[in-house]
Amino acid sequence: SHLSIDETSLSHGELYTILTNKSAKGGKGCIVAIVAGTKAETVIEVLRKIPESLRKKVAEITLDMAGSMTMIAKRCFPRAVRVTDRFHVQRLAVEALQEIRIKHRWEALDQENDAIEQHEPGVYLFTRLMYFAFIRPGEILNLQFSHIHLREAYITVHGLISKNGKTATAQIIPALANELEGRLVFQKPEYYLFSTGIQPASIHFRSRNHSGVMKRLWSNWDC
């Protein structure tokens, strides 16, 4: 016969070990035993109440990769071939693949950031302001150098340029401060941080919407 053993939670987080007969295919005689708990010794004690002659007839038992399940299978069904449940194998494979995918994704993002920083520092600073200061693209385009307070480590987003019409401040973290410091050198307070060509100037870089802002920004990046 072919059996399966697994643990499940039936109610209120209580765990049970369930032994099923695969030959019954979910029909009558499918449930062989239900044992409260998952401790190997407890389950073994209950399953050994099944006559040894019947337990030795089990040719195969499917289980997960938990050490307790392996012990139960070896002690109670010594002649059965132990087969790892494919669900658990697939889950481990998918998790491993996901880890690799995330690792390569971060590496690709780092390479992209390095390329942007090297070839177009203006675009790089723009994205840093969105990422680190949580300032909207349209608001960033309205920022003037007088709005940047490096010593106090904050940026003023005036109500006249903010989306909700309310004046607010954004914190300047060290990673962003380093980028802004290089931008602020020899600039006039009334100049905008980003103007034509994503360079500081007195001319306001206008765009009607978010997508227009990003399209014009990236059109200036050619690396």
Automatic annotation (TrEMBL):
<dbReference type="InterPro" id="IPR011010">
    <property type="entry name" value="DNA_brk_join_enz"/>
</dbReference>
<dbReference type="GO" id="GO:0006310">
    <property type="term" value="P:DNA recombination"/>
</dbReference>
<dbReference type="Pfam" id="PF01610">
    <property type="entry name" value="DDE_Tnp_ISL3"/>
</dbReference>
<dbReference type="InterPro" id="IPR002560">
    <property type="entry name" value="Transposase_DDE"/>
</dbReference>
<dbReference type="GO" id="GO:0003677">
    <property type="term" value="F:DNA binding"/>
</dbReference>
<dbReference type="GO" id="GO:0015074">
    <property type="term" value="P:DNA integration"/>
</dbReference>
<dbReference type="InterPro" id="IPR047951">
    <property type="entry name" value="Transpos_ISL3"/>
</dbReference>
<keyword id="KW-0233">DNA recombination</keyword>
<feature type="domain" description="Transposase IS204/IS1001/IS1096/IS1165 DDE">
    <location>
        <begin position="3"/>
        <end position="118"/>
    </location>
</feature>
<dbReference type="InterPro" id="IPR013762">
    <property type="entry name" value="Integrase-like_cat_sf"/>
</dbReference>
<protein>
    <submittedName>
        <fullName>Transposase</fullName>
    </submittedName>
</protein>
